Amino acid sequence: MRWLVALALFSSLALGCDCGGTPRRRCTSSRECPADQTCTDGACVPTVERDAGTSDATRMDSPVGSLVSIAIAPAAPSIVVGAGSSTLDFAVVGTYSDGSSRELEPGFWTTDDAVLGSIVRATGEYTASGVRAGTARVEVEAAGLTTNTTVTVEIERTILGDGVPSDAASRFTAPVDDPARRLPLLYPLDGAVMPENIRPIDVQWDGDVEGSDLVRVRVEGPGVSVHAYLLSTSGYGHHWTVEPAAWRAIAESAPDEPFTVAVDRWEAASGTAIAGTPRTIRFADATIRGAIYYWDLGGGRIVRISGDGSGLEMFMPRAPPPPPPGGPPGGRPPGGGGGGRPGAGAGGRARPPARAMGAAASPATRFRRMAGAWPPRCGTAATPASSST
Q1: Helix (H) or strand (E) segment spanning residue 8
Q2: pTM of the model
Q3: Is the pLDDT at 341 greater than 90, yes or no?
């Protein structure tokens, strides 16, 4: 008889007991329990469904209380990303019928914006990519319940040029408004609207600076702040091209919302920061496909701007200069060949007739034929520029 009692006691310890005689399976995770049970306090317990009209369910936890709801902690956080990426750990917290709460085992996590950031499904570790700013939805399913929150990603980039001291930002904390010492902003134009895939702009300004003065270029908008600090003696040229990664964050974070561009100056002689006049630009929620062609007056050639933002391309090199007035060198008449019949070349062989400048001629051929008269000049005959190639 004693060995039967010992066997029964051993079985109760192995399976668990709810003090009412129903055996429980020991567990370390709900995955080890049947589909209608969950692992609570190391034992599989039944799931108790609510009324059909409710959207969630409760699970038995212990004789003291049952799980009523779950929540994500922290709730609606913000992440500030500098250079690179930033991470944040989410947790799921359960609230019980007795008013107590505790962190639950990791559930199943998802997010709805893979460009903004990613999340580890089993642990809730969220990584903001830093590609752009914005807000994403984060959802978790745990203990048969589902809840969600939002995460907001902000981008702050600080860029130091060559020779710029590490404390440069502290010198622009309280800029004053002084038109006499302000650096006039030349580009971009105020109110400009740009596509999302435009290549990084070259911010340009004017004004005199001393050798040890500092310049701050600011581009700011919803969720994005890019500050570049330049020293006027280190390759200073009154312009700065926005870095590609920072520009993508600016262009893709908030379509149709205004961004401001400004150039501030820190005057070393007086230790004063002078605020620049900001200009407003916007980005359309669209991209450019195709290309833009224009004539480079200084280079004397056609340049193409690719619509995908890949940059400039010398589409057609400078054409050779046309022959001088009066025909080609050597005194022979055009098309002549030393006394041969008209249209014959050297040795009297006939040349094939030249194609007319119509649709049959290639673009390069048409361009070479027009080179002598392009670009036209008013009041004088066209004088082609000499070519170095």
Answers
A1: helix 2-15
A2: 0.62
A3: no
